[in-house]
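Researcher: Let's try something more involved. This one mixes different molecule types, so please make sure each is placed in the same coordinate frame as the others.
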Amino acid sequence: MSETKNEFSDFLFANNIACGVTEPDGAKVMGMLLDMLKRHFPKLNIDEARAEIEKREKVFPCIVAPGLAVPHARLPGLEAPMIAIACSPRVINYGGKDVSTQVISLEMNMFVNVMVLILSPLEDPNLHLQVMSMLAKSFSDPASIRKVAELKTPADVISFFKTGQIRMPEYLLAKDVMRTDFTPLHETDTIREAIDIFATTQSYSLPVVDSVGDLRGVASLKDILTYCLPEHLLWMENLSPIYRFQPFVDLLKSASDTRVSDIMQELGEPVSEDVPAIQLAKLFLEQKQSQLIITDKNGRLAGLVSLREFCAKFFWE
Amino acid sequence: MSEESSTISVKYFVSRFLILLAVSLTVGLGGFYSHALESHQAVACGVFIGLIMGTLFFWKFRLALAFLGLSVLIFTGSLDIPHFVQSSSLEVILFLVGMMVIVGALRDLGFFTWIVQLIVEMPNLSGMKFITVTSVASALLACAVDEVTSIIFISTLIFQVCDRLKLNPTPYILIAVLATNIGSSGTMMGNPVGIYIGTKGGLTFGDFMMWSFPIMLVSLFSVIALLLFIFRKELKKFDESLQSRLAQGLSLAPRVKVPYKPGLILLICTVCAIASHHPTEELLGLPKNTVLIIAPLICSGIVMIIKQNRARYYIEHEVDWWTLIFFMLLFAVAGTLEYTEVDKVMADAFSKVCGTSPYELVPFIFFTSAVGSAFVDNVIFVAAFCPVIEQLSLSVKDFPLWWALLFGACFGGNITMIGSTANIVALGMLEKRPSASHVTFMKWLAVGLPATLLSGAIVVGALLALNPLMADRPAELDFAKVEKSTGRDFVNKLAKFEVSGVRAYDENSASIPAQSLITGRTIEAGMDLMFGGKPHVLATAYGKNEGEAIAVALPGDFTLTDSPLILTGAMYSVPETDAKYPVLLVVKEAKPPKAK
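Model: All components are placed in one shared frame. Result:
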């Protein structure tokens, strides 16, 4: 990669940008973007790219914000990221006819106005994530998606990204890999409420905040289990006295009276959002935790990074 | 001794190592050049002091330091391999291995779970009741298994209850630890120093039950009462939180019916096996404390057969090999003090400071071992002190001295937060609890010192009061040990003395001054003597070598003989330095030696 390419706009070429797209079928728009990239990068294997994109779409949501789809894949042999953009003032049906091939956020619909196709080198996960991070910053304002959708020419699109001056960071930070879409627990929540939240969000652990939003601790399913099964009960090799989960009766009886604050653990050393992302890997390994809580400069809750999500970003996202 | 962070800075390491080296060299060279110690003695002392300081500064590296210290001793000829093997007290190590396996099995069987559930499910629970029961359980568990095991399990109980009541567990942990340390003096299983003192001092389980356990109980309840007073505010808070929780229909822990019989049977069998060691040894004609040492091995062996799937786990994970190897090397290093006869030097110094009166020796030994154990691992202290008491036992009644050492070593652990392994373990567990308040050195001292002063006063008072009831055990003496040059002063010391024969008293010998016999008159050849209401005759007992002879007062019906005899009786020093005979033995019993 050229050392001078350190802004998102540096990866954009007018020939790879289509404005005023009228085709409503997302799959066809995808094909169009791939063709554009093929013309610009003749060595690109379109079929391989399409297959990888579809594989990722089954696992990760490609509609990352209302109106914005970012289909992407990491391919071997690429020397630099390839980006193609389709803008439509109308809508592109990203869901297509066969919805089952799409993983779509429950809160978003299938219709988008901007599609950004990103193909990154497989061997450089850092670069891929940096590009994704820059794209996320470019569209940090939800209104900008609509704005880009209505741009008339590729030059306008490039100019939009240039204006933002979103520079590629020297290295990824925690805030580039954390997720912010989660619901923290409140210390006054009951265990019953916490169980419901864990169940619906399919989380393993969640940060606990107080009434003003300050971090107070972290509660996990393991803490609930520990509450049911005090340590001394686990000393026994033969657990037959509790084969019928007798200790759980105690918890379930008091679930509406026991607060999250009764079971939560104190927060370990919080991780600042500005630490290098690689530091998170070290923390995962050294602290043997499956989730890290990220705080902003003021020490307030900023995001979460789970081990699974972290690995996904680097290995297969 | 303290656990430092996982990495030590180079600066810390070098500075502490230099201090260690400086102190060791000062002690060694100072002792040598002041002519107080010979060369090997100086090396032994220097290495021993170095090891003590090493455990203070580098607790994590204590085993490495023990390895190196032992190497220095062997290199310098201060210890040889056979004596190393002999001094390492393998019997004590094996005893502890057996007990650790049994503890693992007891945990598997749910015994400790049952104990915790029993306490947590007590009816009409209050703060005072909870603390008292927990403390007593802590002490008795320490008696039955060991102090570290006890504090681990009791701490878990306290954390469980305090988590439920949202209380700071620190005061309750402190109380439990103090009780554990006190309880560990009750039997020889409670603390490694107990079994070590038991084997070195020839004390039986029955001796512990008769003398140590009751004194421990009195001390325990006194200290509990003191602690309940000191922590009365916390207890009030405990009561309020508990009542509030109970009023909501909530419990302190899930109610679970835990099977307890297998664990209880195992514990009872083990304790009975250990307790019956003395009668068994007498019956089978085995040397003293033989069965004591192997009793846990028998029980743990049976356990490992019954629980074959856990046998390897018990040996690999329940036995704390790191600590046991450290103890073994520690004993060996302390054994050097005996090998190089530093113990004699120390015993002489003790005698000069304290004389031979138990009213001075008992408080002095208790105080010294308590203060020493407050700052240094009590095992180190006891390992060094035992040879001294063995030396003192040659001339004074040693029974109360062993108890003074035991109680001092155990109770001294309460003075400071680094005083015992149970303290360190409890503090380590507290540090991991976010709800626990930090315990500082002074905070601990503020509670530990008064508790130790109270329990110490009880112990010293009890030992001195019970001293007349304690039997004097015969010291095995010979002509070399009673010579004037040894500086020993015998005053009615029960002794066993092997002689080559007994002949008529040499009439040309100087008479024996009355002071040495507390009879009020001078003793001369041919005069009628009465001891214990029986007539005695003055005679001379001689040894194999020319010049070996002591004066003896024989029962009137004794026949003089040139055959070897073992004479048992009361030994008295003759005060005059130019007296022909250094001591007078008032003989109670004369037997031929056992055939070898």
